[in-house]
Amino acid sequence: MKIILLNGPPRSGKDYAGRVLLEHLPAGTPIVKMAKELKERTHALYRLVDEDGPYPHDFYEAVKDTPLDEFEGITPRQAYIAVSELLIKPLHGDKQFGRWLCNYLERLEDEGVSTVVVTDAGFLGECEVLVDNFGPENCLLARIHRVGYTFAGDSRSYLDLDHLQVQCQDINNDGADGFRTSLATALRLASPA
Question: Whole-model pTM?
Answer without folding.
Answer: 0.87
